[in-house]
Design goal:
Elements (H helix, E strand, L loop, with lengths): L8 E5 L9 H12 L9 E6 L7 H14 L3 E6 L9 H10 L4 H4 L9 E6 L7 E5 H4 L3 E7 L14 H8 L2 H9 L2 H18 L3 E9 L5 E7 L3 H16 L7 E7 L13 H4 L13 E7 L18 E3 H5 L3 H11 L9 E3 L2 H12 L9 E4 L7 E4 L1 H10 L2 E3 L1
Helix pairs in contact: 1-2, 6-8
Length: about 400
C-alpha cells in the first residue's frame, strides 16, 4: 500500500483539561503552609530536579529558589537522575539546562555529581543498600520536585513520582543499578522500602508533587514531608491516571510517532500510551498496535534513544542521531535490553510508514486503522484514517478540524 493512497483527517481529541490559573501563587501558598515553618536563616537547601519532562519546571524551580532565599536560607540544584544524561555529571547538567534550569535562569547554582553516600540498607530480604547524592546529603535539607504519573515499566501504589525520585533519582546511578537488578516487579515492591529509609534519614525537608492534566498543563501542586510523602504520591498517582492523555482506541494497525525522546518519556515513547512494554513476563496493555513507526529523536534527548526498540520501524534520520554509548548506559542500567534494539531503518518518513503499513498486514486503504501523533506527551491533535475518525465521532471523543 502506498502512502499516497492513505487519506488522513486531523482531529482534536478531548482530553482532561484542568490548568492552574496562577502557578507561582499556588506554589507560594503551599510553600508558606508546609515549608516556611521549617526554614531558618542560614540554612542551605538542596532542590532535587529530575530528567522527566515536567511542564513549567523552570518556573517552579525559579519560584522555589526565590521563596527559599526570602526565608533567609540559601539553596542549590542537584540533578536527581540515575543513568540519564549518559550517567555523567556534565550530561545530567545538560539535561536540566535543556529544561531551562540553569543558574542564570533560576538563580541558584547547579551542583552535578554522581558521588553518593551510603545511608545504610533496608534490612529484610533482599537487604538493599540505600544511597544518597553526596552534595544533597551535605545540605541542611532536601526538597525533591517531581511530576507524579504512571510508570512506563510497572504498576503499583507508587510509580513515577516523588517516592521514586527519593530512590532512583537522589540515589543516582549507584542506586539505579541496584534497583534495576530486581526487574520490574522489584522496582514496584522495593522502591517504597528504599524511599522509606531515605525519609527516615532526616535529610528530606519536603517533597513537591506536581500533577499534570491531559494537555500537559500543571493541574495541581502540593508539598508533603515524612510519611505524608507516600500518601500524597499515591493520591496524585490516582488522579494522574484519570487525567493523563490517552489514545482512545482498542486497536490500531499502525501508529506513526513523529518524535520520541527522553524529554517526552523515560522510555522515549510512553508505554502507557502505546500499550507496549517489551519486558519479559509483563503483559502489554491497550491499544493493541500491529506496527509502530517512529520518525525522529528530540534534541533534548542528547542522543539517548532508549525506547527505540518499542518501535518496529524508524528512519535513517533518527538512527543517525543516536548516541549509542548514552543509550546503552541507560538501557543496561534499566535491565530491559529489548528497548534498546534498533528497529528496521528506512531512508525517509514515507518509506518507514509504508513499511509499517505493510508489516501490519493491512491491505485495504479504506479499512486501514492508522493514527499519526506528534509524540506520546502531546495528544491534543492527531491524524487518523476514516475508520478511526468515524469511531471518534460516534464516541464523542473528538472532532475533525
Amino acid at each position: 500500500m502506498r502512502l499516497s493512497e492513505v487519506k488522513l483527517h486531523r482531529v482534536k481529541l478531548r482530553q482532561v483539561s484542568a490548568p492552574l490559573a496562577d502557578i507561582p501563587a499556588k506554589l507560594r501558598a503551599e510553600f508558606a503552609a508546609a515549608v516556611t515553618p521549617k526554614l531558618r536563616p542560614g540554612m542551605r537547601i538542596a532542590i532535587a530536579l529530575g530528567s522527566r519532562g515536567v511542564s513549567n519546571i523552570a518556573l517552579l524551580a525559579k519560584t522555589l529558589v526565590a521563596l527559599i532565599n526570602e526565608s533567609g536560607a540559601s539553596c542549590f540544584i542537584v540533578p536527581a537522575m540515575g543513568s540519564h544524561g549518559g550517567a555523567t555529571p556534565e550530561g545530567q547538567r545538560a539535561v536540566l539546562a535543556d529544561y531551562g534550569v540553569t543558574e542564570e535562569a533560576v538563580g541558584a547554582p547547579v551542583v552535578s555529581s554522581l558521588e553518593v553516600v551510603r545511608l545504610g540498607s533496608t534490612g529484610g530480604k533482599p537487604d538493599i543498600p540505600v544511597f544518597l547524592d553526596r552534595a544533597a546529603f551535605g545540605a541542611d535539607g532536601i526538597i525533591a520536585v517531581n511530576r507524579v504519573k504512571p510508570h512506563t515499566d510497572f504498576h503499583g501504589e507508587h510509580e513515577s513520582g516523588i517516592v521514586k525520585m527519593l530512590t532512583i533519582g537522589l540515589g543516582k546511578h549507584r542506586q539505579a543499578i541496584e534497583m534495576h537488578t530486581h526487574g520490574a516487579s522489584g522496582l514496584r515492591d522495593y522502591i517504597p522500602r528504599v524511599s522509606k529509609k531515605v525519609v527516615e534519614s532526616g535529610k528530606i525537608l519536603s517533597c513537591l508533587a506536581v500533577l499534570e492534566d491531559g494537555y500537559d498543563q500543571t493541574a495541581d501542586l502540593a508539598f508533603a514531608s515524612g510519611d505524608e510523602i507516600f500518601s500524597l504520591d499515591k493520591a496524585f498517582l490516582a488522579r494522574s491516571r484519570q487525567m493523563m492523555a490517552k489514545l482512545p482506541f482498542q486497536s490500531l494497525d499502525v501508529l506513526v510517532v513523529d518524535e520520541m525522546g527522553k524529554d517526552i518519556s523515560g522510555t522515549g515513547m510512553d508505554t502507557n500510551v502505546i500499550g507496549r512494554l517489551r519486558i519479559d513476563g509483563q503483559a502489554d496493555g491497550l491499544p493493541k498496535i500491529a506496527s509502530i513507526a517512529v520518525l525522529d529523536l528530540t534534541p533534548a534527548s542528547h542522543g539517548n534513544a532508549l525506547g527505540v526498540g518499542l518501535a518496529d520501524v524508524c528512519t535513517r534520520r533518527l538512527a543517525s542521531q543516536i548516541d549509542w554509548a548514552a543509550t546503552y548506559q541507560n538501557v543496561v542500567t534499566s535491565g530491559f535490553l529489548a528497548r534498546g534494539y534498533l528497529p528496521i531503518v528506512r531512508e525517509d518518513d514515507e518509506s518507514a510508514i509504508e513499511l509499517a503499513i505493510s508489516a501490519s498486514g493491512a491491505r485495504n486503504p479504506q479499512a486501514l486503522r492508522l493514527a499519526r501523533i506528534r509524540n506520546t506527551l502531546h495528544l491534543d491533535e492527531i491524524l487518523v484514517t476514516k475508520p478511526l475518525l468515524d469511531e471518534l465521532l460516534q464516541g464523542g471523543q473528538g472532532e475533525e478540524i
